[in-house]
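Researcher: Can you fold this with magnesium ion in place?
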Amino acid sequence: MKFQSIRGVKDILPGEIEAVQRLELAARSVFESFGFSEIRIPIFEVTELFARGIGTTTDIVEKEMYTFEDRDGKKITLRPEGTAPVVRAYIEHQLNLKAPVAKLYYLGPMFRHERPQAGRFRQFYQIGVEAIGTDRPAMDVEVLAMLMTTLQQVGVTEVQLEINSLGDAACRPHYRKTLKAYFKTHLSQLCEDCRRRYEINPMRILDCKKEGCKTVTAKAPSSLDHLCGECLAHFQQVKDGLNQLKIPFIVNERLVRGLDYYMRTAFEVTTTKLGAQNAIAAGGRYDGLVEELGGPPTPGIGFAMGVERIATLMERFETPKPDLFFALLGEEAVRQMLPVIIRLRGEGVRIEMDYSGGGLKKQMGLADKLGARHTLIVGENELKSGKAILRDMRTKEQREMSLSDLSEPLLKIIRS
Ligand code: ATP
Ligand code: MG
């Protein structure tokens, strides 16, 4: 029987993982310099958390969640996104009491039962942040600066930041009504999904990718024309802050997010280099979510980056090569050198060796193939004379090294 990974779920192999690791490292370092700390949330939660948090009329909740009953008959969902779990943890652990603003980041896999295609998987990785506890526009600007700095640090610069404001509890209902009135006259041109959205959540129609719906939404009233004074001022301050930091952006008044919890600032970073799956990060404000999930009224803002999509935009990195290859001939050489090998590895030296018991020629071939910088040769003759041979694989120069005092001199050469 031959097994294969599940459709839409893929392995990230050595050679591909290096870009992902660099992205994770860069994100951690940028986020931490902004004062964010990691939170590690579970892979699965009760289904109700996502249904409530993300909104029942969203694509995710309607058709993308991996939901099952566990052995106790409890309804469980593999997390499709990180915000609802982070907010759940914020409320559960009363993080509001620990700091005025909880500044958290997470990274890990998300699960959505989507149609697999290039850049769209059923298990994919996100790196995300949430700042919970302030509605100040300065935080929107900081969060956006953090996102753009991270992308810049991994060399992903040909991107576009699009922002919009979706209004708040005061002005959104009015906009919703206006929007509904507009769509009412175009119902026959909308797809089946959108006709359903029309009843429950007409703003979601703006996010539909179908051509017919796009034609209709192109002329739909804009949320920006319906913002209340406070939302307008908030949005203006976000734009001013971005300008001050010289972060380029465009205002896209059609931008809505696929999740119900967003309010006011919504944003997306896109690239022209990935074809249809062009969004590499997205987020926004969710000022109603904490309350919706049973906590005290608390504003928040965050984003999530699509790791696979960003990694394909990054340059390729090679799998690290060994600093040193031990060409050991005979069991006695292996026995004597093992303590040295383990000691040097403990010092961070990357050491490889042969595991097949091959001859010198074969072992040198392997050292070459692995791209080792140096090779240390120890066979019967070397054991007898007490001197090993160190070969510089680049210059082909060889030198003798005393077997009784190997570690320190080797360390020195490797670190020089
Ligand atoms: P899309 O419009 O591409 O479906 P989305 O609005 O569903 O994206 P979010 O839920 O905001 O995406 O997730 C943030 C980011 O995570 C996206 O911008 C994208 O880079 C990445 N992402 C989302 N879904 C997938 C997926 N199925 N496979 C790979 N990456 C994904
Ligand atoms: Mg999606």
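Model: Folded with magnesium ion in place. Residues 17-33 form the longest helix (17 residues).
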